[in-house]
Amino acid sequence: MKARNVTIHAAALVLLVAGSASAQKIAATGAKPVKCTNPFTTVAVVATFAGSALYQDIADKPYQEGVDGVYNTVVYACPGASGDATMGLINSRRSLGFRFPSPIVGSVIGDAPAWANSSFLAKPFMNVRNILWGRKNSATTPNTFTTRIGFSYFSGPGDNGTNYRLVHAPRLTDSGVVGTTEENLPGATTPATVEDIPGNCRTVSGGTLDKWIVTVDPSVGTLMRDVNNGSAVQSGQYSMPFKLMIEAKTCLPF
């Protein structure tokens, strides 16, 4: 029994010394856990796209993270992140313009807003779901695939705090991120098509950065009006084509 105890104690001593050596090495080198920051982006509405239902409040100035109060304008590219590309304008000094047509005939299930068939500026939160799906799942470069896009938490003229969201989120997309049944009534919405254009910054010092072209055309989008109990009222479907250019400000890790 005594010999066994000596063996156990010796093994414990080896582990303790090894652990101490590792700790001393980390302390000596100043090594720290690697911190990942999701890359900032700029978002621009492609003004030359014919019939665009979106427009910028300042024509030649893209929306950029940290500028004019624009926030959460990033690509979630860190390990374990969603891969989404987002842009926040709520409470910022920037706005996004919407050109809403009249609802598609027969598409209103609840009630259409009074501002349908008008243009106005609003401050939505945009989310392009899993914009990195292509580079994770395709061998071609650049690659093209479909996904969901939505503009949430915006109000139209005279809404007095009522929030709406416009979604293009069919029940089937390449990325696997899909919409709800309610968002696809009475007809299916159309997806966003993403062209993922990787830069060469991972192999060339000072090289080009990553960018994505997001297009909705043709367009059937569903407008949902949020209500106080957390549910939503369908407020019609609309033809609202557009094209966006999203560009990374730093090199993505892959």
Verbal overview:
There is one protein chain. This protein folds into 2 domains: 1-32; 36-248. The protein is 13% helix and 32% strand. It contains 2 helices and 16 strands. A 7-stranded antiparallel β-sheet has the order 4-5-8-10-11-14-15, with no helix packed on it. Strands 3-1-16-13-12-9 form a 6-stranded antiparallel β-sheet. A 3-stranded antiparallel β-sheet has the order 2-6-7, with no helix packed on it. β14 and β15 form a beta hairpin.
Set down the secondary structure blueprint.
Elements: H1 2-29, E1 41-45, E2 54-56, E3 63-64, E4 71-75, E5 85-88, E6 96-100, E7 118-122, E8 125-128, H2 133-137, E9 143-147, E10 149-154, E11 164-168, E12 192-197, E13 211-216, E14 221-226, E15 232-238, E16 242-248
Short description:
The chain has 254 residues and is of the alpha+beta class. The chain has helices at residues 2-29, 133-137; strands spanning 41-45, 54-56, 63-64, 71-75, 85-88, 96-100, 118-122, 125-128, 143-147, 149-154, 164-168, 192-197, 211-216, 221-226, 232-238, 242-248.
Comma- or semicolon-separated keywords:
254 residues, alpha+beta, 2 domains, 2 helices, globular, disordered N terminus
Number of helices: 2
In round numbers, the mean pLDDT is 89
In which order are the strands of the major sheet placed?
4-5-8-10-11-14-15
Helix percent reads: 10-25%
Low-confidence stretches: 1-29
How would a textbook summarize the main sheet?
7 strands, antiparallel
Distance between the termini: 56 Å
Number of β-strand runs: 16
Structural class: alpha+beta
Alpha-carbon Rg, integer: 24 Å
Q: Name the helix and strand elements from N-terminus to C-terminus, one letter apiece.
A: HEEEEEEEEHEEEEEEEE
* Global outline: globular
